[in-house]
Design brief:
The complex is a heterodimer of chains A (550) and B (43).
Chain A lengths: L10 H19 L9 H6 L6 H12 L2 H14 L3 H26 L6 H9 L1 H33 L4 H16 L4 H30 L2 H7 L5 H4 L4 H21 L1 H9 L5 H28 L12 H9 L2 H39 L6 H24 L5 H23 L5 H19 L7 H27 L1 H19 L7 H22 L8 H6 L13
Helix pairs in contact in A: 1-8, 3-9, 3-13, 3-14, 3-16, 4-5, 4-14, 5-12, 5-14, 6-7, 7-8, 7-16, 7-17, 7-18, 8-16, 8-17, 9-14, 9-16, 12-18, 12-22, 16-17, 18-19, 18-22, 19-22, 20-21, 20-22
Chain B lengths: L1 H36 L6
The chains are: A mainly alpha (550), B mainly alpha (43).
Chain lengths: 550, 43
């Protein structure tokens, strides 16, 4: 990378910025640190988080370093509509899980993880599928966030990439280790406030440094007709639709979100989710505008690397103070997501692995806390090692995305439909995963009847996505009608067309196949599940603590 | 007109962020007061 094109801080300045950030964050956690933490507080803050902290934490967790770079890349590549196709869909997914989240809380008011609910509903195999996908996902997320730190530090200072990775790892672990989720939520608030303040300043600062609105207007001539179109099909098919499908799976499958869902006071779930939706959308779309502005001024990313867009724009047009603020913005975003991942993984190992499968619902709280902290240390080590060696995780990323896509329908159906069985859940996820791999890696030739069949299954997947959204807000009948009609309309458009968009087709297939198998296998059984059993099986682990107002 | 719309399109997002910043800030101050009044921990 040509570092001469970026503003360079001295080693001392960068170390001072990092020390101020991580030192300040650590000092903040001392406000809540107790000599003896309890397990329920460590995992979900005793289910008593208020609206302000809940919304801040949800937003900060959903925003990671890749959000800025991804939104800016989308703006630069697809023009006017690009930032919307990154930020809007990501934001809507927070809103989308709200109605399902209320159901999860109603069924299991004392839960710490979604896996516990699934364990009570189906047993260990389904629970461990969910838990393992979450752990894999969080490891990937940790690695990506530590990598972003390494890249930022190496671009803006003489320090090495590895130094940036290690500092972020140690810094995040340092303030999260003792109080777990409680520390994560409290620091998320401070980090989000800092991120928002910086975003509010940087976006207009870049625009006016470029020459103001007139420069943007003049720059419209540099855009292709597709880039100038707010309803660009190119942007919808290559960015919006695949991202929409991917983040839906992420929202349902990821413990960082469900952990906050179980932690927020039940009467505050709705305002928390709505505020987080708007907050996420505004920050991410806004920062995506920097990519659009780069396109409108004819800037070329250094070395063709889109991740250089925002640092380049900030370095070229803003003063060192703003560059320092941008540095804090990125470190804040990656740290807030990394601490959430550490808290999520510790809760999964504590509750899903130790609490349910080893201690059989009678865990030793002291041992449980030790296991949670040990998990954080090991996860940080793995994240730092993977990031330091810049390991290729594409296959792992694809695999986790597919797994999450395949579990969306079985998880939701298990919480609403009493006939879904453990066999139906497990076989649906496995079938969805296998068919995803066949489509994604083109293990069969995508021509003729096979391509047509896959496109039909993808149309079913599209119908499932839209049907679930309609079901969440409009109920079963509306969901079924919207799902069926969407599948028919999508089938009409997909046949002979979608085979050229392998990523989108494979993602939708994971939804479609898992849904068909889940429904088919469930209908073969006449068993009916009593949902009240879930509340009896999902318990608080510290008997001294009162149960929540569920 | 195009200039105005483009400026609005870029600047509306930091403005919304500012509104959310205020909402979350005020709500958190309320959370802190309630926690103090009821003598329980904030998180």
């Amino acid at each position: 990378m040509n570092e001469e094109n970026f503003y360079q801080f001295s080693t001392l300045t960068v170390l001072a910025l990092l020390a101020a950030f991580y030192g300040g964050t650590y000092l903040l956690t001392l406000l809540i640190k107790k000599k003896k933490e309890n397990t329920d507080a460590f995992m979900v803050s005793n289910h008593q988080i208020g609206f302000g902290l809940g919304a801040a934490s949800m937003t900060a967790t959903w925003i990671w370093a890749a959000s800025f770079y991804g939104a800016a890349t989308s703006g630069y590549t697809y023009g006017i509509s690009g930032p919307l196709h990154y930020g809007l869909w990501g934001a809507l997914m927070i809103l989308f899980i709200y109605p399902f989240g209320r159901r999860f809380r109603k069924l299991a008011p004392n839960a710490h993880t979604l896996g516990e609910l699934i364990h009570a509903r189906h047993g260990s195999s389904s629970q461990l599928i969910l838990a393992s996908s979450n752990i894999l996902g969080s490891i990937i997320s940790l690695m990506v966030n530590f990598t972003a730190s390494g890249a930022l530090v190496s671009v803006l200072s003489p320090l090495s990439f590895q130094a940036g990775v290690v500092i972020a790892g140690v810094g995040v672990l340092g303030y999260t280790l003792w109080s777990g989720f409680r520390a994560s939520v409290l620091t998320d608030f401070a980090q989000l406030m800092a991120m928002m303040a910086v975003a509010i300043l940087i976006i207009p600062a870049v625009m006016f440094a470029l020459g103001g609105p007139q420069t943007l207007s003049d720059g419209m001539s540099l855009l292709t007709p597709e880039q100038a179109n707010l309803f660009s099909m190119d942007a919808i098919l290559n960015q919006g639709a695949p991202f929409f499908v991917a983040v839906l799976a992420y929202a349902i499958g990821n413990q960082t979100i469900s952990q906050r869902l179980f932690a927020v006071r039940e009467d505050h779930i709705k305002p928390t989710f709505i505020t987080a939706t708007i907050g996420y959308g505004a920050i991410v779309i806004g920062l995506g505008m920097i990519g659009l502005m780069a396109l409108m001024t004819g800037m070329e990313p250094i070395d063709g690397d889109m991740n250089n867009l925002i640092p380049q724009m900030v370095s070229m047009y803003l003063s060192p103070v703003f560059i320092g603020l941008f540095f804090i913005l990125v470190i804040g975003s990656l740290s807030s997501t990394a601490d959430s991942d550490l808290s999520a993984m510790s809760a999964i190992v504590m509750a899903d692995v130790y609490g349910k499968n080893i201690a059989k619902n009678k865990p030793n709280p002291t041992k449980m806390l030790f296991i949670g902290r040990l998990t954080m240390v090991i996860a940080t080590l793995i994240g730092v090692i993977l990031a330091s060696f810049s390991m290729d995780i594409l296959i792992m990323l694809v695999f986790v995305g597919a797994l999450w896509g395949a579990i969306v329908f079985p998880v939701i159906a298990s919480c609403f439909w009493d006939r879904v069985t453990n066999t139906a859940f497990t076989s649906a996820v496995l079938a969805g995963l296998v068919m995803f791999c066949v489509a994604r890696f083109e293990l069969l030739p995508m021509v003729g009847v096979i391509a047509g069949l896959f496109e039909l299954l993808a149309a079913v997947g599209g119908g499932v996505v839209l049907g679930l959204m309609a079901f969440g807000f409009g109920g079963r009948r509306v969901g079924l009608i919207v799902g069926a009609l969407s599948a028919i309309v999508l089938a009409y458009f997909f046949i002979g067309f979608l085979q050229d968009y392998t990523v989108l087709m494979a993602s939708l297939m994971a939804y479609g196949v898992s849904t068909i198998v889940c429904i088919g296998v469930s209908l073969m059984s006449s068993n009916k599940f009593d949902f009240t059993q879930i509340n009896q099986k999902v318990i608080n682990y510290d008997p001294a603590k009162p149960a929540t107002q569920g | 007109m195009q200039t105005f719309i483009l400026a609005l399109y870029v600047l509306i997002w930091p403005l919304i962020s500012l509104a959310i910043f205020a909402i979350i800030g005020i709500a958190t101050v309320k959370d802190i007061r309630i926690a103090r009044r009821s003598k329980r921990e904030l998180v």
